[in-house]
Design goal:
- There is one protein chain.
- The protein is α+β, with helices and mostly antiparallel strands.
- Among the domains are: about 5-110, no CATH class; about 115-225, no CATH class.
- It contains 18 helices and 17 strands.
- It has a five-stranded antiparallel β-sheet with strand order 6-7-8-9-10.
- The radius of gyration is 34 Å and the shape is flat.
Length: about 475
C-alpha cells in the first residue's frame, strides 16, 4: 500500500489572517499539498526564508493601504514556472508584500485569479498571417481573448470548448481585420494559440462562416462609403445591434441607389440630412430632383448648387453658401465635416450685399466660435477669420462694422491665446471713439473682455438688463469673460 505525505507551510501572515477572520470558529479547513511535488528539504528551507521575511513587528505595525506602497510584490513557496508552466499558477498560494521605504511589509496570502496581458500578435491561420491587437485574460478554468477590442473568444479549459461573439463594433479597419481572421479560422477549423489548441465542429463552422462572410462584405461596402465621405477608417462606430441595419441603409443610399428607407418631413425639398451609424454622426444632402438623391454634404455636386437667400424687407435675392445653414450640433459632431469645402463655398456669397446678410454671416461665425470652445479644433477658427475679413470691407453700417471687427479680434484671441500689441491698440481706439450710451453698452462690454479689463467688463455686464445678460451668456464672448473670473 502506497503512503503519501501532505504538508502545509503556515506562516505568520496567513496565521494572522486565519485568527482575525475565523478565530471565532471551532474549526477551520486548510488545503494540503502533496510532498511528492517537491522535497522535504525545499519545504523547510523556503519556510525558514519566509519566517525571516515575516517578523511580527512588520505584520503588527503595518498600517499602509495598498495604494500607498511603492510596489506590490508576489512570491510563492510552491509555484515553479519552469517545472509546471503558467497554467499551473492558479493552483498555488502566493504571499503579497508591499515595498515602502526599502522595507518589504508582508500584507496577505492570496491566490492569483487571472493573468491579464495585451500585445500585438501575428497569428498564422489557413495559410494567412493576421496581425491583431489582443487582450488575454487567463483564468483557472477559462481563457478570454479579445481581438481589436471587438471579437471575444471564451475558451473552456476543462472541455476544450470555444465560444465567440462580436463584443462591440469598433472602427471599419478593426472590423475588417477581425472578420478576415475569423473567416480564415472558420475555414481551417484549426485553432492554435499559445494557451490553447483545438478543432471547431463542422456543423457549427458552416453556420457561422456564412454569417461572418456576410458581415465582412457589409463592412467592405461601408469602407467604400466612408472613403467617399472622407471619414477616417479608424473612427470607432460603436452602437448596439441596430448598427448593422444603419450600415445596410447607408450602403443602399450610396451604392445601390435605394432610398426606400429615407424618412424626411419634406421629401420633395432638397435639404441637409443628419444620419448616424452607431456613434458616428454624418451630414448628408438629399436632393429629390436628381437620380442620385443622397450625397456627401461636402461633395462638388452640393457645392455647385445655387442657394438663394430672400430678404423680406427689400425683396432681394442674394446668393450665399449652403453651409451657412449648418447647425451647431453638426459642426461639433459630423465625422465628415470638411472645412476646406465650407471655406471654398464662401466664394458663392455676394459680398457686395454684405449689409443685407451680415446678420446671417455673423451668427454662423459666432456658432463656429462656440463650437471651437467646446471642441478646441483650431481649424474651425479659419471659417470666421475668412468670413469676417471678406465682409469687413463691404459693410457700410458703422455698428455692424464695429461688431465685425470685435468678433474678428475675439477669433484671433482664441487662435493665438491673446492679441498683438497693435490689435490691443486698435481695440482701445475703437472703445475711445464709441459713444457711451445704451446702444453701445454691449459693444463696450465685448471690448473690455478682449482688453482683459475685468472690473470694467463687470460693470458693463451688470448694466445689461436680465434678458440681454441671458442672451450674452450663450455667446462666445461670454466664455472669454468667464475665464477672467
Amino acid at each position: 500500500m502506497e503512503t503519501q505525505i501532505f504538508y502545509k507551510q503556515l506562516l505568520p501572515t496567513e496565521l494572522k489572517e486565519i485568527i482575525s477572520n475565523f478565530g471565532h470558529q471551532k474549526s477551520f479547513a486548510i488545503e494540503l499539498r502533496p510532498l511528492r511535488e517537491t522535497t522535504l528539504y525545499k519545504v523547510c528551507i523556503t519556510f525558514i526564508e519566509q519566517m525571516i521575511k515575516q517578523p511580527r513587528i512588520l505584520i503588527e505595525n503595518n498600517h499602509f493601504k495598498d495604494e500607498e506602497y511603492e510596489e506590490l510584490i508576489l512570491t510563492s513557496m510552491t509555484y515553479d514556472q519552469e517545472k509546471n508552466g503558467v497554467s499551473d499558477i492558479f493552483n498555488h498560494d502566493f504571499i503579497q508584500f508591499g515595498l515602502k521605504n526599502n522595507i518589504e511589509y508582508p500584507i496577505r496570502n492570496t491566490r492569483i485569479e487571472s493573468i491579464d496581458y495585451k500585445l500585438t500578435e501575428r497569428i498564422e491561420v489557413n495559410g494567412n498571417t493576421h496581425e491583431l491587437r489582443v487582450s488575454t485574460k487567463n483564468e483557472a478554468n477559462r481563457i478570454i481573448k479579445i481581438f481589436e477590442n471587438s471579437l471575444e473568444f471564451h475558451i473552456d479549459k476543462s472541455g476544450d470548448k470555444l465560444k465567440f461573439r462580436i463584443k462591440e463594433v469598433q472602427s471599419i479597419a478593426a472590423q475588417l481585420k477581425v472578420f478576415s481572421f475569423l473567416i480564415d479560422l472558420l475555414k481551417s477549423r484549426e485553432i492554435h494559440f499559445n494557451e490553447f489548441t483545438g478543432t471547431l465542429p463542422i456543423e457549427e463552422t458552416k453556420l457561422h462562416l456564412e454569417e461572418i462572410e456576410s458581415s465582412y462584405l457589409l463592412f467592405k461596402n461601408l469602407e467604400k462609403v466612408f472613403l467617399d465621405l472622407n471619414v477616417d477608417l479608424q473612427t470607432k462606430i460603436g452602437g448596439g445591434d441596430a448598427v448593422f441595419k444603419e450600415i445596410d441603409n447607408i450602403i443602399k443610399f450610396f451604392i445601390k441607389n435605394d432610398y426606400s428607407s429615407v424618412k424626411l418631413e419634406n421629401p420633395e425639398q432638397p435639404s441637409f440630412v443628419r444620419y448616424t451609424i452607431g456613434e458616428i454622426y454624418l451630414i448628408l444632402f438629399y436632393n429629390p430632383l436628381v437620380e442620385k438623391k443622397v450625397l456627401d454634404a461636402f461633395s462638388e455636386e452640393v457645392l455647385g448648387l445655387p442657394v438663394i437667400l430672400g430678404i423680406d424687407e427689400t425683396k432681394e435675392e442674394i446668393s450665399v453658401s449652403p453651409y451657412l445653414m449648418l447647425e451647431k450640433e453638426t459642426l461639433i459632431k459630423a465625422a465628415n465635416l470638411n472645412i476646406d469645402k465650407i471655406i471654398k463655398s464662401f466664394d458663392l456669397i455676394e459680398y457686395d450685399k454684405s449689409d443685407l446678410i451680415f446678420s446671417q454671416i455673423n451668427n454662423f461665425c459666432l456658432s463656429c466660435l462656440n463650437v471651437y470652445d467646446i471642441t478646441q479644433r483650431k481649424e474651425l477658427l479659419e471659417i470666421p477669420l475668412y468670413l469676417f475679413s471678406k465682409v469687413k470691407e463691404k459693410i457700410t453700417n458703422d455698428m455692424d462694422k464695429n461688431i465685425c471687427e470685435v468678433n474678428q479680434l475675439q477669433t484671433n484671441f482664441r487662435l493665438n491665446d491673446g492679441l498683438t500689441s497693435d490689435q490691443y491698440k486698435h481695440l482701445i481706439k475703437l472703445k475711445d471713439k464709441t459713444q457711451v450710451n445704451s446702444d453701445t453698452l454691449e459693444l463696450r462690454f465685448c471690448i473690455s473682455v478682449l482688453l482683459q479689463g475685468k472690473v470694467e467688463a463687470d460693470i458693463f455686464y451688470e448694466e445689461l438688463d436680465s434678458e440681454k445678460q441671458k442672451y450674452y451668456s450663450e455667446l462666445p464672448i461670454f466664455t472669454l469673460y468667464q475665464k477672467m473670473q
